[in-house]
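Researcher: Going back to the complex we discussed earlier. I've cleaned up the inputs and rechecked each line, so this should be the final set. Can you rerun the prediction on the complete assembly and write out the structure?
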Amino acid sequence: DAGVIQSPRHEVTEMGQEVTLRCKPISGHDYLFWYRQTMMRGLELLIYFNNNVPIDDSGMPEDRFSAKMPNASFSTLKIQPSEPRDSAVYFCASSSIPMGEQYFGPGTRLTVT
Amino acid sequence: DQQVKQNSPSLSVQEGRISILNCDYTNSMFDYFLWYKKYPAEGPTFLISISSIKDKNEDGRFTVFLNKSAKHLSLHIVPSQPGDSAVYFCAATSEGNTPLVFGKGTRLSVIA
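Model: Rerun complete. Updated structure for the full complex:
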């Protein structure tokens, strides 16, 4: 298995632009998670899905953030409009069991100037 | 309000010696704990876990100890190797009920 795939690996954009991050989970995994890692806050959960349905989005910082999972093999995290404080590494993870071991993708490093 | 705390941002250990990484938690409902290891430019990878019904779990050079009364767990690496240099995250959950809550991580440097 290729593991969790994320694209792009790096994204540099200007403030106000729309950013879309993509994730392909491991086949057969029913749970998908989006995390954000910053120096100040560490690794924080933004949203997670079970069987393509959003279960908990309480970690999404603002309405500028949205996430979708149109099918079992694809998810997106969108930021519109982006701001410099959104600069961080965004990870996608998937798992086959509810709240145990998760498999992380390599992350997308987002820089908003 | 941090429910999982890793109070040491960094740790430096000589090769061959023991590395001890600590983690404290505040939520008494947590009953399953995990350690993840992260290399630069990669995602975290699962290392070892422990259920609250145990106080120790061992996997090769890695051992996790859980002290429920103190709400404290630690990861021991013996002997430490240069390849162990990474950021280690502690995570906790109320099994089957809540998402993982991660600490901020401890950067381990193993010096040859």
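Model: Worth noting: The interface with chain B takes residues 4, 33, 35, 41-45, 48, 56, 91, 93, 98-107 of chain A (CB under 8 Å).
Researcher: Good, that matches what I expected from the previous run.
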